[in-house]
Amino acid sequence: MSFGSVEALLAASEHTPLWRAVLEDDCRDRAVGESESFERMTGLWRAMVRSVSDYDGARRSASGLSGGQGAKMAATGDALCGPFWQAVIATALKVGEHNACMGRIVAAPTAGASGVMPAVLIPLMERDGLSEEIMVQCLYVAAGFGQVIAARASIAGAEGGCQAEIGSASAMAAAALVHARGGAGAQMAAACAMALQNVMGLVCDPVAGLVEEPCVRRNVMGAVNALACADMALAGIAGAVPCDEVIDAAAAVGRLMPASLRETGEGGLAATPTGRRIAERMK
Amino acid sequence: MNIFDIMGPVMVGPSSSHTAGACRIGLMGRRLLGSQPVRADVRLHGSFAATGAGHGTDRAIVAGLLGMKPDDPDLPRSFQLAREAGMAVTMGPVELRDAHPNTALLTLENTEGRVLELSASSLGGGRIRVNAIDGLEAAFSGDLPTLIIRNEDRPGIVSEVSRVLSRYDANIATMQLYRDRRGGLAVMVIECDEPLPPGTREELRALDGVVRCTYLDLGEG
Fold first, then answer.
1. Could you state, in order of their start, the residue ranges of all structural domains in chain B?
2. Cβ of A154 under 8 Å from any chain B Cβ?
3. Torsion-angle region of residue A194: left (phi > 0), alpha (psi -120 to 50) or beta?
4. Whether pLDDT at B221 is above 60
5. Which residues form the domain of A116?
6. Domains in chain A: how many in total?
7. Are A265 and A278 contacting, i.e. CB atoms less than 8 angstroms apart?
8. Residue B53: is its pLDDT beyond 90?
9. Contact A156/A163 with Cβ under 8 angstroms?
């Protein structure tokens, strides 16, 4: 059936944890048992963990644009924002680069945004010693909110710009983080809404049309934004506009965006003299 | 979209449309041909042609032709593996009219000399759509267990086919009919809710007027 609104998602989770409401809906939708659904999601979580551990800092992408940044970030001794955030930044870079180098990742919701979810969840799991079960629950929460975003707006850069990819991933991750900290459904919705608000209108302008520049580092922004919004929501902060309306606004903004800023590689950074030179070199 | 369209798939990067979807197109070609091709001509249209090399679209399609799924870590090495497997691959751009920007046109041949022409598009998120088989229009995704039946265009064949399916208790989700001309060659595309029991395909193939019957169950879990 899938959830058409965050409001419906919250209503379904009035008497049950939100992640369970998403799992139960999946079981009805695909006519599978709960353990079958949970095992499949666990498989995705393990693949996500591997997408970080498989990272090889020496690898470079076919274009030569990506590689090595995650290793550099992890190796720096004195990160301005402390060891936890350093790990978040490094993880986002690693998965983004692993993806660009044709490594195996989990699209969440897309390959270009595959760094966001692991970047916030894995360092948190390691720091707080959270169980795998909780991390899998987080993925259900993220998928539940992602489903609403996909239904009401878009998760494709070609349709909604980068806000639809990194933005959606960041909003999903923010909601998931609230669950990891034991927050309520309404706080997840607030975190999701704030994360999406913060990236409203972000364009998709990949240099030479490749999922590399600036996509890899936009994963970092998505992860950092998700953590900040989750912390705000857990502190009791919420934006004035409810989550469903924010998602609808993102959809409207996506429709207003010119095609040159929706994954065509013709606007933004792609249209700079350097961007064009790189594209020319690729031909 | 179910939650595993949002979370997932597990795939080799960098792009769900240009890499994972492209691999599925190759895999679809292999399944429709019925075996591994010995010769494959791959033509890329639109964004596939413009950014395909940087996204590994070419390597992903060849990987699919070799039977690899989008999460196969060997996907980037597919050209080398194709050479080792004796598959001759030619590749280049093509301009198609009114086609989706991520479209590939495959011409495949197997050891028995059977030739298949497939046009398919990658729609985003790794999902694909077949546009045409051997020049005959057909629209299906392969997400559900799918029957592709080529038959003579004459009365009664559709009911014969549905009779067989109902006897096997198979529920039809969607059904499409295409033909080149009245009384000519027709294609029936039937998507079912559940995988078909063994023997269904053989029974359909044996029906009078059915030229060929292909069954696809791409369920990748």
1. 9-134, 146-216
2. no
3. alpha
4. no
5. 6-282
6. 1
7. no
8. no
9. no
Residue A273, domain member (yes or no): yes
- A102, A110, A212: residue with CB nearest B75: A102
For residue B9, which residues of chain A lie inside 8 Å, CB to CB? 106-107
Which residues in A lie closer than 8 A to residue B50 (C-beta atoms)? 209, 265
Residue A1 domain-assigned? no
Q: What fold characterizes domain B9-134?
A: 60s Ribosomal Protein L30; Chain: A; (3.30.1330)
Quick one: which H or E segment has residue B42? Answer: strand B39-46
pTM for this prediction? 0.89
- State the DSSP H helix or E strand holding residue B3, giving kind and residue range, or none if neither: helix B3-6
For chain A, which ranges sit under pLDDT 70? 1
- pLDDT score recorded for residue B54: 86
- Torsions phi, psi of A212, nearest 5? -140, -65
Fold adopted by B146-216: Alpha-Beta Plaits (3.30.70)
Pick from B2, B3, B102, B192 the residue to mutate for testing the A interface (most A CBs within 10 Å).
Answer: B3
A225 touches B at CB < 8 Å: no
Mean of per-residue pLDDT scores for chain B: 92
Per residue in A207-227, pLDDT tens?
998 999 999 999 999 999 999
